Amino acid sequence: MNLDLGSLFGNKNPPLVGLDISTSGVRLVELSEVSKTELRLERYASEPLPRGAVVDGNIENIEQVAEAVRRVWKKSGTRAKFAALGMPPASVITKKIILPGGLSEDQLEVQVESEASQYIPFALDEVSLDFDVIGAAPNSPDDIEVMLAASRKEKVEDRVAIAQAADLTPTVMDIESYAARAAIDRITAQLPNGGQGQIVALFQIGAQSTHISVLLDGQAIYEREQPFGGNQLTQDIVRAYGLSFDEAEAKKKNGDLPQDYDEAIRNPFLENAALEVTRAIQFFFTSTPYTRVDQLFLAGGCAMIPGLLDVVANRTKISTSVVSPFKGMQLAPNVREKQLRIEAPAYLVACGLAMRRFG
Hints:
30% strand; SHS2_FtsA; ATPase_NBD; five-stranded mixed β-sheet; 10 helices; Pilus assembly protein PilM; FtsA/MreB
């Protein structure tokens, strides 16, 4: 089956699960709509992945990942068979282009393809291409602004194959950073004045890398990826205590480490993380016209490391919080609230993907 980034932007029908496949594991979220303004978290679950199954966003072992998807689907208790998946930002080329207004859908497609060939360093038949009309072009009302998205077909097909091998039907292929942004927009809307005029910096600190998005009124004004993540802390634990990577990862999660761990290993890692955040913000200031950040959100698996929030807030002097994408949602009776509070920051992308159910 050849899935275009097809439904990258389209409206989708219920029920649907958001399925986030990252280096460290697979996360699933299912949401429902209580009212036009209120969502409910029906189910969420995660399943770890063996090391090397996903590397730098590339699927290296389809069977292992499909098996993890099968397990997470079963563990969650969902019945939904439709899935929204995300592509890593590094695998997708996005470009805003200006086209004449008043084109038919077919004419638009032809125009987009001819424009795309200028921006995409691959043959068009090797690429899944999609576009979304954003609206009137800012400075010329007769033209339209169109968002173009393209990814190598094989990268899209790998994710499609995984969903299908787990008996799911992939109906939406999004971009992970866009999904995270959709989830964050919900949270920003809960700030004073609906977050209008606030410059919000989102740091998603994963296992291998940190994705930084700076947002203003729902638009990304800056994006960057840094090679820093929680695996560095795991490697420090491996070296200090002579454990295997998997043992170190498990002990890191359940806090079962020697007495000197906080002082000798964790605190230096937290300082290093805060330094990475500060550096990224400085880089944002020097490479854009902006000179302030009003709110800093931490997300991703690493955001849950005890002490990170305080160290980052102290170092940056910016209002900082660890983000829960489910803030302000109703919770289904089977959702364990205490557990959710601990794990929520890791579900930002999965939550944003699940939100695609509602258009």
